Amino acid sequence: MTTVVYRRTDRRHGAFALRTLDPDADAALLHGWVTHPKAAFWMMLDADPAQVTHEYRRIHAHPHHDAFVGLWRDRPTFLAERYDPAHVELVGRYDAAEGDVGMHFLCAPTDTPVRGFTLAVITTVMAWLFADPATRRVVVEPDVRNSAVHALNAAVGFTVVGPIAKPEKDALLSVCTRAMFENATGLTTGGPATPGGVPA
């Protein structure tokens, strides 16, 4: 059984939500997303359904990493992962600080792209992370070649720290504090009464 953990209404695009991910029930959905050519930077293009299930079972069981299915107008349209960068992905590769949260997101492939949708998705994911008062800074490590995500990151307030070498890629470490996100988006974050989005 899945649970909605966050809801937000975007001014342009309407209702967004995030729900918990079920590694088995969502496997077929996720397989179609992560193996699509547009998801090349997700690095699962050759994964079969069993491998996708295994990966998300691993994340589901991990104490410092979890995954969520994003909904737009009640339909699954994106994937979000949250992790503790002091324990996952960036261990020993940057100066971790209390309140750091790592993030990945992936939009589902579509034949009918909606202008501004991906920006609305990353804004929703960031607002969800900052709805937790313990989150002080969001940390990301996209592939250095992923110029589209670099532009989206900048639009929601990220600043580039610099390139770092990871086993699977050369990444561009970037960080965004709560104040940087609020200044970039005009949203207010941090509690259940937040106008821009509320915990479900």
Task: Write a structural description.
With about 200 residues, this protein is an alpha+beta fold. Helices cover about 25% and strands about 30% of the residues. The chain has five helices and nine strands, in the order ββααβββαβαββαβ. Strands 7-8-6-5-4-3-2-1-9 form a nine-stranded mixed β-sheet, sandwiched between helices. Strand 7 and strand 8 (about 170-175) form a beta hairpin. Helix 1 (about 25-35) crosses helix 2 (about 50-60). The longest helix has 14 residues, at about 115-130. It is globular, with a radius of gyration of 16 Å. The two termini are about 15 Å apart.
Count of individual beta strands: 9
Helix content: 25-40%
Shape: globular
Largest sheet entry: 9 strands, mixed
Short key terms for the protein model shown above:
disordered C terminus, 200 residues, alpha+beta, single chain, 30% strand, 9-stranded mixed sheet
What's the layout of helices and strands?
Layout: E1 4-10, E2 14-20, H1 27-34, H2 49-61, E3 65-72, E4 75-83, E5 100-107, H3 117-130, E6 137-140, H4 147-155, E7 159-165, E8 170-177, H5 178-185, E9 198-199
Parallel strand pairs: 5-6
Antiparallel strand pairs: 1-2, 1-9, 2-3, 3-4, 4-5, 6-8, 7-8
Helix pairs in contact: 1-2
